[in-house]
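Sequence, please.
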C-alpha cells in the first residue's frame, strides 16, 4: 500500500534534498549518471528555460524551492530565494549575486502580504499533493501578484502521478512523490497561460493581481 502523498511536510523528502544538494545540478547539466539518462534534447531545453527566466521583467521575485539557485541566478530585479534545505540554500547563496537566500517553509512563507511582485517556483509545484498545493497557492496569492511555475513535462508512457525511487551517488535510496504535467494542464490548474511547452519541461504563468481585482 502506497503512503499518503506528501512532499513539503515530509521529513524523508527533506532528508533526501539535504543529501542531494551537492549533486543536484548533475541533473540539469547532464553529468554523472544523467549523461546517459537525459534525452538528446535536454541541453537545448535547459538553455531555453534559462532564457525564459532571464527574460522575465525585473521585479521583486521570491523563488520558492530555489534549490541550488541554478535558475534563480538568472532572475533580474530584487531576488530572494527560499528553500527548506539548508544545504541547498548554502549552494544558492554562492550563486545569487546581490540577492538573498533564506531557509523557510513554502507552505508558510516568511513574507509580509504583498511583499513581492512575483513568485517563481521550479520543480516544486509538481511534487505537491492536493492539500499542500492548495496551501502553497494560498500563500502565493497572499505575498505576490504573479506566479510563474516551471515543472517536468508529462511524457508518453509515464504515469502522471507516482512515487519515485531515487538513488543518490552515495547509494542511499529515497521515495519521492511526483506529478508530471502537460503545459495546458499546468496552466489550467493555475488559471493562467502557457509560457513554455517542451518535451522535458513546461511552464505557466498566472496574474494573481488581476484575479484579486475581479474577486
Amino acid at each position: 500500500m502506497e503512503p499518503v502523498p506528501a512532499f513539503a511536510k515530509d521529513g524523508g523528502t527533506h532528508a533526501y534534498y539535504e543529501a542531494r544538494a551537492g549533486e543536484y545540478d548533475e541533473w540539469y547539466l547532464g553529468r554523472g549518471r544523467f549523461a546517459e539518462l537525459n534525452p538528446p534534447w535536454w541541453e537545448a531545453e535547459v538553455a531555453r528555460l534559462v532564457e525564459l527566466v532571464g527574460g522575465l521583467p525585473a521585479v521583486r521575485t521570491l523563488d520558492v524551492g530555489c534549490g541550488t539557485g541554478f535558475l534563480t541566478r538568472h532572475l533580474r530585479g530584487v531576488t530572494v530565494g527560499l528553500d527548506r534545505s539548508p544545504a541547498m540554500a548554502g549552494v544558492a547563496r554562492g550563486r545569487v549575486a546581490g540577492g538573498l537566500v533564506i531557509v523557510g517553509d513554502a507552505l508558510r512563507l516568511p513574507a509580509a502580504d504583498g511583499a513581492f511582485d512575483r513568485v517563481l517556483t521550479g520543480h516544486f509545484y509538481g511534487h505537491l499533493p492536493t492539500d499542500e498545493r492548495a496551501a502553497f497557492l494560498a500563500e502565493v496569492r497572499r505575498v505576490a501578484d504573479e506566479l510563474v511555475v516551471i515543472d517536468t513535462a508529462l511524457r508518453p508512457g509515464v504515469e502522471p502521478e507516482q512515487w519515485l525511487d531515487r538513488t543518490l551517488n552515495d547509494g542511499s535510496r529515497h521515495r519521492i512523490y511526483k506529478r508530471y504535467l502537460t503545459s495546458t494542464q499546468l496552466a489550467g490548474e493555475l488559471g493562467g497561460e502557457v509560457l513554455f511547452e517542451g518535451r522535458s519541461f513546461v511552464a505557466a504563468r498566472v496574474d494573481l493581481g488581476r484575479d484579486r481585482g475581479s474577486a
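Strands lie at 61-64, 79-83, 100-103, 118-122, 146-152, 161-167, 173-179, 193-197, 201-207.
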